[in-house]
Write a structure and sequence with these properties.
With 364 residues, this protein is an alpha/beta fold. The chain is built from 17 helices and 11 strands. It has helices spanning 27-30, 32-36, 47-52, 54-61, 82-94, 109-121, 135-141, 179-184, 186-195, 198-212, 216-236, 252-261, 268-285, 294-302, 311-314, 316-325, 353-363; strands spanning 4-9, 15-21, 41-46, 68-73, 102-107, 127-132, 146-151, 154-161, 166-170, 335-341, 344-349. The strands form 3 sheets. Strands 1-2-9-6-5-3-4 form a 7-stranded mixed beta sheet. It has a two-stranded antiparallel ribbon with strand order 7-8. The chain is globular. The protein binds nicotinamide-adenine-dinucleotide.
Length: 364
């Protein structure tokens, strides 16, 4: 499959480019203006990615590698905190990273969330490039400019909307993911099948099974469909003000509660899959779901079987505490994105505890 290249102008007038494909050219060749204008590069990645992709990163950086300093974060979620953020900012200062330098975030969603926030904060904002290396990252986390770290056991509490100047989704990075790791990102892919318009939604469903078995063509097709859809959506509602971007939160209210309650034992993708099942049940129970659409929604949510939810996730008091503290609730007791039919979502506030509790029991 040939690569796909898209450029979107955001309401902030910022121009954001995205390239998706396989075995792509080095970054300085893909974005020559951006790279030739930079005085220095700071590659941010986690320990595991750095050891897996030593050669891959040399290829990725091309002729920029001689002017690149490398910051390694702890693996995965352990990177998303203030301690690592502060260490990263101090590292950049010590290594002479300037306002004209470029941060290159290469890793899963934890790395791109952290490095994007560092880019937003350092000297009041410097340019950054997002190079997601997980399926979840290429379909979702690495695109859209939501950057954050966790705080007080809650996800993404301190962050900023800060678009990368350039995003590269090269599916050759996905070759080192095990079948289990690929499946762990699949919840977010299924989300696209349910929130996107018919064409990209079908593209996701058509390619999902083969992609999860590591099919190269299918992985490229599915990540491109999701990434292009997300960039377009986000460019029309960058700061979640019109409700358009909020559809991306489908499954995330309960999903984040399950993820937090599991103490790291449930991956984000699987947590979102459980969260979508929960939201679909609520949608049906509250009469919001179009009855004719119910079989299609249910069938999509059964394509992947997530690991069973453990007891702490099913404790209603704990679950509800996370739901109430979810930042999307705003002034309301709670807020869920519910599904009317594939491609049509609706935000609903203040669902009574009685219904939330009953639905959690039924989900279990
Ligand atoms: N900003 C957003 O819009 C957005 C959207 C969805 C999720 N997220 C965030 O993304 C995070 C989850 O990200 P994730 O699931 O991509 O995982 P991750 O970044 O937490 O990484 C998980 C593990 O995969 C390893 N890894 C990464 N790439 C690899 C590769 N190619 N081969 C082998 N191992 C590899 C990492 O080293 C790590 O050990 C969560 O913190 C979530 O909140 C952000």
């Amino acid at each position: 499959m040939k690569h796909i290249s898209v450029n979107k102008i955001f309401s902030s007038s910022k121009s954001v480019s995205l390239v998706c494909g396989r075995d792509l050219a080095p970054l300085p060749r893909l974005a020559p203006k951006l790279f030739s204008a930079a005085d220095k590069f700071c590659l941010v990645t986690d320990r595991k990615c750095f050891s897996v992709f030593k050669r891959g990163f040399d290829r990725l950086l091309g002729n920029a590698s001689g002017r690149t300093v490398v910051f390694e974060t702890p693996n995965g979620a352990a990177a998303k905190n203030f301690k690592t953020l502060e260490r990263l900012l101090a590292f950049m200062l010590k290594n002479g990273v300037s306002r004209s330098s470029l941060i290159i975030a290469a890793g899963g969603g934890s790395v791109t969330d952290l490095a994007g926030l560092a880019a937003a904060l350092y000297m009041r904002g410097i340019k950054w490039v997002s190079v997601p290396t997980t399926l979840l990252g290429q379909a979702d986390a690495g695109i859209g400019g939501k950057t954050a770290v966790n705080l007080g056991g809650l996800k993404n509490i301190a962050g900023a909307f800060y678009q990368p100047d350039f995003t590269v989704c090269d599916t050759s990075f996905l070759d080192s993911l095990s079948a289990t790791e690929l499946r762990a990102g699949a919840g977010e892919l299924l989300k696209y099948a349910l929130i996107a318009p018919v064409k990209p939604g079908r593209e996701v469903l058509r390619n999902l099974s083969a992609a999860l078995k590591g099919g190269k063509k299918e992985l490229s097709a599915i990540t491109s469909a999701c990434a292009v859809f997300k960039l377009d959506l986000v460019s029309r509602d960058e700061r979640e003000e019109t409700g358009l971007r909020e559809t991306l939160n489908f499954g995330h209210t309960a999903g984040h509660a399950f993820e937090a309650a599991s103490n790291g034992s449930l991956s984000h993708g699987y947590a979102v899959l459980w969260g979508m099942r929960y939201a679909a049940m609520l949608s049906y129970k509250l009469g919001i779901m179009d009855r004719k659409a119910a079989p299609a929604v249910q069938a999509a949510l059964q394509i992947i079987e997530p690991p069973a939810l453990k007891t702490p996730c099913l404790n209603f008091e704990r679950f509800n505490m996370f739901i109430r503290r979810d930042k999307k609730s705003g002034a309301h007791t709670n807020r869920f994105m519910l599904i009317v039919r594939p491609g049509v979502l609706k935000g609903v506030n203040n669902i009574p505890d009685r219904i939330l509790k009953q639905t959690l029991r039924e989900l279990a």
